Fold RhoGAP domain protein.
Amino acid sequence: MGRNGSENRRRTPLRPAGPSINVDRLNVNSLTGILFVQVLEGRGLKFPEKQKAITEEMYCVLEVDEQHRARTGVSTAEQRFRWRETFHIDVFSATVTSFFIYSWHPQFRHKLCHKGSLKLLEAFIIDQLNGDRMFALNLEPRGQLIVRIGFHDMREVFRRTVNPRMDGVFGVPLTRLLSREMRETPIALTRLIQEIERRGVDCNGLYVCMLIMKLVCGSVEKKRVLRDELEINPLECDLSADSVPDINDFLRELPEPLIPPQIYAMLIDAGGVTLPNDTHGNRQLVLRIIDCLALPNKNTLLLVMDHLATVLSSSPYNGLTVSRLTTVFAPLLLCCIETSCTKELKTLDVPQAASTLSLLLQIWPPRTEVRVIQTHPAVSRTPRMLYRNLSVD
């Protein structure tokens, strides 16, 4: 049988396909937004002969367009290889997701046992690119992986609604949150950044790969535990080795982007007049625009930008280039649904947002001193960065 026939056999929808839809009518060739992947269980999985005597455990690695993005914990045949782990993955121009199942052993090299792939556009074409579907994905050389995959596009992801919970932490306007907490930066965000930097920003795959073993970013189930604790008491929440700190959700769920559209538009204009050999002048121009932010936004942006600059300083070790880091964080800081978009400003355009954040990182002043960030309970009311004068007179 030909190659196309083989690919069709590897994807078996567990629900009726519904009416036929003309792919050409959809003006997309890739997906940008959030991919929801739930790895449920494996069926008919087998260990290689040489592995049977030394291990009974397997784990699943998820790739999007050949980049490692998530990894489950281990499961065994006795547990029927039921992982039941969910991942929310930010994707940009994604086309293919692949699943690789490895044997696991604490001392021996992990061996690839099974693999399978899924073309994302074909998976969601039935649902007009939003919604979710369950698949029995046929694996090579044998077996199946039961997965549920969903997708939300940029308009759905960045609706930025207000959390109705008055004492909440996520999805709360910054002014209200900081007034209640009597802090210059949000306690939850500050502590999460402190914890990530305490664990080390030289971790390979930081902010890109959801490796549970690294505990930088993990499955939805693990993140929800910490999130619930932060919502109750962000100052006393335990950030132990088992917790999964993640600042992305906090920034994404702000009712207004940290850099609002008005300031965003000014930064775009500034990017058009910066000079390649005038670092001082470029910094002066951009930082004066940042000074126009409301004080809660400005203080919080200083915290985040200092963190991103620290992450970039370890780029040789964590693999995060400016391009990769801005693709992850630019939508979180800049994107929203804005009805008054202009020809110059497109508030859901990821490349435009990434270019703007790249401009900020290029001119961003370094931290004035290298220091070990203290963790709870010393969450400073007056962090160092608040005293730094951004304007260059």
